[in-house]
Design a protein that fits this description.
This protein is mostly helical. The chain is 63% helix and 10% strand. The protein has five helices and three strands. Strand 2 and strand 3 form a beta hairpin.
C-alpha cells in the first residue's frame, strides 16, 4: 500500500534542509575521525608505548606499516592495531590447543 504525504513547499524545504545539515555534519565528523587516525612518529611512539628510536628502527627495517611523506613518517592507527594483533605472542594454552 502506498502512502501519500501532503506537505507544503515550506515544510518540504525545511525537511530537505535538515537532511542536508545532517549529511554535512556526518561527513565533517567522518573527515575529522579519519584525520585523527593519521599519526606522527611522536604520536605513534606514544600510542605503541615504545621509544621513538625503536619505532624509527622498525620503519627502516620495514617491520611496521607506515607512509613516508617527504621526510616525515606517518602512521595509520588502524594499521598499527592490525600490526600489533599480527605480532601477538601466543600463550602456552594457545600453542597447546593448536596441537
Amino acid at each position: 500500500m502506498t502512502k501519500v504525504i501532503v506537505t507544503t513547499a515550506e515544510e518540504l524545504e525545511e525537511i530537505i534542509a535538515q537532511i542536508l545539515k545532517r549529511n554535512l555534519l556526518y561527513n565533517s565528523l567522518s573527515r575529522e575521525k579519519e584525520e585523527r587516525s593519521i599519526m606522527s612518529i611522536d604520536e605513534a611512539s606514544e600510542y605503541l608505548q615504545i621509544p621513538k628510536n625503536t619505532l624509527y628502527r622498525y620503519t627502516s627495517q620495514r617491520k611496521v606499516p607506515h607512509k613516508k611523506i617527504g621526510r616525515s613518517l606517518k602512521f595509520k592507527r588502524e594499521e598499527l592495531v592490525d600490526w600489533l594483533a599480527e605480532n601477538k605472542r601466543k600463550t602456552i594454552k594457545e600453542i597447546q590447543n593448536e596441537n
